[in-house]
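Dear Dr. V.,

Thank you for agreeing to look over these. As mentioned in my earlier message, I'm a first-year student in the group and I'm still getting used to reading structure tokens, so any feedback on how I've presented them would be very welcome. I ran two proteins. I've put each sequence directly above its structure. The first is here:
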Amino acid sequence: MEYKDYYKILGVEKRASVREIKQAYRKLARQYHPDVNPGNKKAEEKFKTINEAYEVLSDPEKRRKYDQLGTSYFSWQQQGGDPHGFDWSQWFSGQSGEGGVRVDYSDLDDLFGGGGFSDFFQTIFGGVGGQRRSARRVSRKGRDYEQPVEISLEEAVRGTQRVLSADGERITVKIPPGVKTGSKVRVAGKGGGGMGGGPAGDLYLKVTVSRHPVFERKGDDLHCEVPVDLYTAVLGGETDVPTLNGKVRLKIPVGTQGGRTFRLRGKGVPYLRNPAGRGDLYVTVKISVPKRLSRKERALFEELAGLHQKRRDA
């Protein structure tokens, strides 16, 4: 019968604490679990040996007996004894099911279709005669899924929804006001199935807000350019400014220069965490110069230019 080095299997020292053994087991169990490695026979065998090692080293009585056995076995080897000639009989378990079956186990036979613990384990620790062979259950949350979704700036401002199909189920997902490119909307429990009784994963909608022909978004603020005719810029007046909630009138002071920016409070994007509040809209003036002039208009501009020159020369 082959001796099993459970410490080596878990990759821990013989002086390892219970916590260190548990941490090593969890790491390896997640790596080699059959749900993570479907159809991989080598991973299945590795998973069996990991569970077997943990079953022994996590139980104080089993670990004590195993350490005594190991000391005797390695002493036999050091004295030149043939490992195959070691007397195992003194270590045979006299009880079927020593240590009992813990309530947090699942049946290895159910998981793998037979062949749970090794002959070494069953001979030394019990399990001969049809005892159910067990492996510690690994509870793990299911995999999270991501689904990209593109929405318009208008939808980002007022909020919207999307209808998705997951495993034949139609899911209506509400997208709150204020989302931006890179925002993720979580749909709990609609990801991959859990492992070992763990909860299902989540579905995340990864939002992209499409470019807008008028507005540029910077955080929760919006920016845009508004053309203002030369006459209004010089003499002052009002002009229409677009917002995502309709047009508003903006007062243009006398002598407004091109590139001047006006701030319209509360005309931006709602705050994601507080939709009652909103960012601002920044409007930059772009002076619109007339391309075609009538004779009279040209004469007036020439007269104006002359007056301006005289003023500069004075």
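The second protein is here, in the same arrangement:
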Amino acid sequence: MQGRTAAVISSCLLTCAAVGQQAQPARPVFPAQDGGMRTVLESIVVPPIPNAPFTATLSTEWARPAGGDATITLVNQRQLARDAGGRLYEQRWELVPKGSNVRSRMNWIQIADPAQRTLYNCNVATQVCDLLTWNAAPDLAAATPSPPMNGPLRGNRGSIQTENLGTRIVAGVETTGTRVTTTWNPGVMGNDAPVTEMKETWRSAPLSVNLVSIRSGPLIGTQTFTVTELDPNPPDPALFEPPAGFAVRDQRQTRPPSE
């Protein structure tokens, strides 16, 4: 369920993140200003395949260079699950500064059903779930690993190299490692020198999930996603229903009779 209400990093996050579990005052409203950016951090892809249930804890660490020898590192942890029917449950938590006393807060719960083609986006702050139509095809495609690629890219854009890293145990599960290194030639993305990016994954074949995923490059720094706990037993069926007390708004569009 990538690209949908993932953790958004903005200038407000570092100053407005939750501090403790007590009731918090209303967040201040900052005036609009020129410049800056809003960044969405994508996470691992969990394809909605059947007969491979699990519950897991996923830890995220995002380290970005801040000039000189400084590095800004943000972290969070979240729960995710998949049942035997391929339904998905995922939490979204705010990224917070590593090593600080700022506590992360859950801000979204997402529940997807490939058979019904539905997605609940549940806002924890407002306790409202938006019911949307979900296209599972892109996430299902992630269940099949891409074939290894080596050699020059088309259009003289650069080159790519794939390495087999062998096997290792992650969260009690055997995984297979792959590292893909891409070098972009000058001018491809406005760069005046070659740019190198790397992606390393440690994948569980039975689950069709990367239990470790590392991406690094000069534009994003280093993003590390690690499954730290994994339970292969079927998850609690209650996870795949809208949370108790949440209102549901059906945002699906009704198709005209001619379709």
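From my reading of the second output: The CA atoms of residues 50 and 85 lie 5 Å apart. DSSP finds two helices and 16 strands in the chain. Does that match how you would interpret it?

Kind regards,
E.
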